[in-house]
Amino acid sequence: MNWDQVEGKWTELKGKARASWGELTDDDLDQIDGKREQLVGKLQQKYGLAREEADKQADEWAKDLDKET
């Protein structure tokens, strides 16, 4: 799934994001609002990830959404 699709379906996808990254709060998910850069930033902040690893996790998560649908 591309990030435009993720952003458009964010309300539906918040639960899947929470399942993948349990440390993200409802407030975090509301702030992210489907935006890739916001998600990457929160992953770096909450999990202490390097930028490259946070980018990789976000992209893999979005790609895996296609497999689930």
TrEMBL record:
UniProt feature, compositional bias: Basic and acidic residues: 49-69
Top-level taxon: Bacteria
Region (Disordered): 48-69
Chain ranges of the CsbD-like domain: 4-55
SUPFAM superfamilies attached to this UniProt entry: Hypothetical protein YjbJ
Pfam families with a match to the protein in the record: CsbD (PF05532)
Protein name from the UniProt record: CsbD family protein
Family per record: Belongs to the UPF0337 (CsbD) family.
Stored InterPro entries: CsbD (IPR008462), UPF0337_stress_rsp (IPR050423), YjbJ (IPR026042), YjbJ_sf (IPR036629)
